[in-house]
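User: Sequence for Malonic semialdehyde reductase below. C-alpha cells please.
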Amino acid sequence: MSLDEAGLDLLFRTARTPQGWRDAPVSDDTLRQLYDLVRLGPTSGNCSPARFVFLRTQDNRERLRSALSDGNVDKVLSAPVTVIVAHDPLFFDRLGVLNPEPGLRAWFAADVGLAEETAFRNGTLQGGYLILAARALGLDVLPISGFDAYAVEDSFLAGQGWRANFLVSLGYADGPPALPRAPRLTFDEACLLL
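Assistant: C-alpha cells for Malonic semialdehyde reductase:
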C-alpha cells in the first residue's frame, strides 16, 4: 500500500512554505492529534528524545521576538502556533518505559557524547515527522532555523533542561506563495547508487 497522488502532493509536491497566515486558529485537539502521529515515527531504540513546546498565545510568541532573526519576526508573530522542537539530553531516563533492553539506560548515561548525539539526531528526525504529520493534517508549515537557541532555552526551556533545535510555525497559509519553488538537486547530484 502506498499514498495516492493526492497524498504525495499534500506532503511533498504541492506543499510549500507559507509567506503569510490566515487568521484561523489551530485547535488544541489538532495539536494533540499532531503529536499522536509524530510519536509513532521510528527512533533508534525507540529513544524518543524530542520534546515539543507549542506556543499558542500571542504573548508567548512575542517572547520569541528578541531570539528571532529579523527576517523571521513577522512570520512567527503572525502564525497561530509556533513549536519549539527540542530534545531532552536525559532522554535515557525514560528508556525503562520505552525500551525493555536491560542496561540501555546505563549505556547512554555513561557516555555524554553518545547521549547528546543520539538525542540531537533522533530529536531532529522527530521534528521532521512533525512537519510531515502537520501537512498530513492539512496544516501549513514554516520551519525556522534563524534564531538564537540559547535565548529560547533561557526563556522557555530552562526549567525542563531541554535543548532547542529548531522552530516550526503552524497554521493555514494566506494564499499561494508569490515565488515559484526554489530548485532542488537532482538524483544524480545528490545520490550514489553503490
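The chain has a mean pLDDT of 96.
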